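Technical note accompanying the year-one report. For the benefit of new consortium partners, we illustrate the data format agreed upon in the data management plan: each record pairs a sequence with a structure-token string. No post-processing was applied to the example shown here.
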Amino acid sequence: MKGNFPTNKFAKIETPFYYYDVNLLQQTLDSIKTESGKYGYEAHYAVKANANRKLLEIISAAGLGADCVSGNEVKACIEAGFPASKIVFAGVGKTDKEINYSLSQDIFCFNAESVPEVEVINQLAAAKGKTASVALRVNPNVDAHTHAKITTGLNENKFGINLEMLPEVIKLIQSLPNVTLIGLHFHIGSQITDLSAFEDLCVRINDLQDELESTLGITLPNINIGGGLGINYEHPNHLPIPDFESYFRTFNKHLRLRSGQKLHCEPGRSVVAQCGNLISRVTYVKVGTVKKFVILDAGFTDLVRPAMYDSYHRIENLSSNEEYETYDVVGPICESSDVFGKDRELNKTKRGDLIALRSAGAYGEIMASQYNLRELPKAYLSTEI
């Protein structure tokens, strides 16, 4: 089974390009709002997954907040219509310029990751005569059982504050006049498909809240569980929308929120991955001694995930319904790592065929580069062509 694409309209568009299915994005957003709304949870879209301006406007109009990791992401969200009161700003290396801009916009919260950062936010807020709201990112030391390069919640990761340091950090913040501690922030990794990792996170948060109440006598108004929910890359046609029902039910069942506490989450990949596809054309079919190679006009400059993470993307020949043959699907970049998939079954393929690299809406367009002086890929919404 292949995806449903308007291939007759693709014929006149220069490849490679990103194609976004707006209807699927809207269905995904509706599912997030329905399932999170059952429990009064607030979702902030993780902008790093895809910052396409038109997608941001759709997500903003749906009522989600934004999770940003740079000053330019904060700016892009303000310009796309996200209310500042729903924008959180995370990241280990916020510059003074980024902090000052975010302070000037009165964003909801800084997710702070170290003592020096909190001290700088306090200093810059004081210079503006403001008080900044801060949530502390805590390392819960929970293994997300995912790729090493996208695991973020362990003690050896660069992110966040280790659990044993938290009481002293909280006492420091309470002594600073221009920051207010409003919550705790957690994020254990990305592309998590085993929900037991989130159950472990709930246990850790429950224990931590008990400890803070007993030792410091404090209960904070916001708990942010980060993002990380994965998608099904193998079967995008059968499972186009992630299981948000089970995801949010897990937290409702296992996390003991205190009276009045608000739970925040930061889905990114799960919002946009399945609605986006990289469309490419076959430049050559090369027959070797052992293998056949499909050489595309798209390379890792357009979609870097397979080269960077050894990631799987389903590959479909949209132009052929002939018998399947086995190919290595590669790009034109002058690097051996420019491979989208080895030993893939595709309908018999020839020069000029249209190829879809599926589930590429997250960490695809946003990570594109101009290595080899290649042009950045254009992007089209289903409503535009």
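Partners are asked to follow this layout when depositing records. The two ends are 23 Å apart (CA to CA).
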